[in-house]
Automatic annotation (TrEMBL):
Residues 9-125, 142-257 form the VOC domain. It holds the Pfam family Glyoxalase. This is VOC family protein. Belongs to the extradiol ring-cleavage dioxygenase family. Its cofactor is Fe(2+). InterPro entries: Glyas_Bleomycin-R_OHBP_Dase, Glyas_Fos-R_dOase_dom, VOC_core, Xdiol_ring_cleave_dOase_1/2.
Length: 299
C-alpha cells in the first residue's frame, strides 16, 4: 500500500502525572499553558494554540507518556492510515463518541506503536477553542515535538519511516533520529533516541521570542525548577533551547526557531557525529536527570 497519507501536525500529547493539582499549577503558571477544562474522567486539558487542547494531564501512579495524538490532513488520510495499520495486523481501538466529544475530535482511533508500545491516536477534525489563546509570560507558538527513547531504535525508526510516513530530517549517530510528520515542514515533531529501555524522553514547546528562553531561565531558577540542559543552541534544527523538569521529573523543553522543510525537494538527512558539539553549539552539558523520568503507558 502506498504511504501517501498526510499528517497535519502533532495534535496533542497526554502525560501521566502523579499529583494532578501540582502539575496543573506548573503547566499553567510556570510553563504558560491555559487550562481549558476537564474531561468526564477528570483529565485536565491545556492549550497554547487556537485548538481544543495541546496537552492532557492524567492522574496516574507513575509519570510518563500516556499517548501522542496525530492530526491528519483529511478524513481520507485518516481512513488511509487506519486501513494501512490494520493491514499490518496492528489492533485498532476506536475512540468512543463520549471520549471523542470530551477531546474535541472525531473518528479517532488508537494503535500501539509495535516497538516502543507508545499509544498513537489518529484523528482528523479537531475543534477550535471558543477564544484565541492569550499568552501570559511566554509567547508559546505551538506544541513542538515529543521525543521517545527506544530500546530497538533501528526497528522503531524503520517502522516510523516505512509504515507511518515519517521522514528523517537528521540523525546524531547512535543517539537520536529527528523526524517530521510528512508533509508538515517542521524539522521534527517526533524524535527517537537510542535507549536501553523504551521511555518518554521529553516534550517540547516552541516559543516566538528569544527572550522567552532567557526569561524562562530566570523564572525557573527563582521557582526552584531544575534546569537540566541549556540555555544552548541545537545544531540539528538550529533552535535555541532550555530544558527543565516538571514536578514529577518529566523533562520539558522550550525552543526558539526551527528549520522548515519544503514538501518537494527537501535536503537529504544529515548524520552528525555523536559528540557534545552536535547537541549544542554553546557548550552546555546536559544533567544526568535530563530525559530520565517517564515510562510509556501501554494501550
Ligand atoms: C538533546 C536532544 C535529544 C535534542 C537535540 C537536538 C534537538 C534539535 O535540534 O532541536 C532537540 O530538539 C533535542 O531535544
Ligand atoms: Fe527537543
Amino acid at each position: 500500500m502506498a504511504l501517501d497519507f498526510r499528517y497535519r501536525r502533532l495534535g496533542y500529547v497526554a502525560l501521566n502525572v502523579t499529583d494532578l493539582d501540582r502539575s496543573a499549577r506548573f503547566y499553567e503558571s510556570l510553563l504558560g499553558l491555559q487550562q481549558t477544562g476537564e474531561t468526564g474522567t477528570g483529565e485536565r486539558l491545556f492549550r497554547c494554540s487556537p485548538r481544543h487542547h495541546d496537552i492532557i494531564l492524567h492522574q496516574a501512579h507513575e509519570p510518563g507518556l500516556r499517548r501522542v495524538g496525530w492530526q491528519m490532513e483529511s478524513v481520507e488520510d485518516l481512513h488511509h492510515v487506519r486501513r494501512h495499520l490494520a493491514s499490518l495486523g496492528c489492533p485498532i481501538q476506536e475512540v468512543d463518541s463520549e471520549e471523542s466529544a470530551d477531546l474535541g475530535i472525531r473518528d479517532a482511533f488508537r494503535v500501539s506503536e509495535p516497538n516502543t508500545g507508545a499509544t498513537f491516536e489518529y484523528f482528523h477534525s479537531f475543534e477550535e477553542a471558543d477564544r484565541p489563546f492569550t499568552p501570559t509570560h511566554t509567547k508559546i507558538e505551538r506544541l513542538g515535538h515529543v521525543v521517545l527513547g527506544a530500546s530497538d531504535h533501528a526497528r522503531t525508526e524503520q517502522f516510523l519511516l516505512e509504515q507511518l510516513n515519517f521522514r528523517a530530517s537528521d540523525r546524531i549517530e547512535g543517539a537520536i533520529t529527528f523526524m517530521r510528520c510528512f508533509p508538515n515542514p517542521l524539522h521534527h515533531s517526533l524524535g527517537l533516541a537510542h535507549a536501553s529501555a523504551n521511555h518518554f524522553h521529553h516534550v517540547n514547546f516552541m516559543v516566538t521570542d528569544v527572550d522567552d528562553i532567557g526569561k524562562a531561565f530566570w523564572r525557573m531558577k527563582k521557582n526552584d525548577v531544575p534546569i537540566v540542559f541549556g540555555p544552548g543552541r541545537h545544531p540539528p534544527s538550529e533552535s535555541m533551547f532550555l530544558y527543565f523538569l516538571d514536578p514529577d521529573g518529566l523533562t520539558v523543553e522550550y525552543s526558539f526557531g526551527m528549520e522548515e522543510f519544503p514538501e518537494t525537494g527537501p535536503r537529504p538527512p544529515r548524520t552528525l557525529p555523536r559528540t557534545p558539539a552536535s547537541m549544542d553549539y554553546w557548550g552546555a552539558v546536559p544533567e544526568p536527570r535530563m530525559g530520565r523520568i517517564g515510562g510509556i503507558e501501554s494501550l
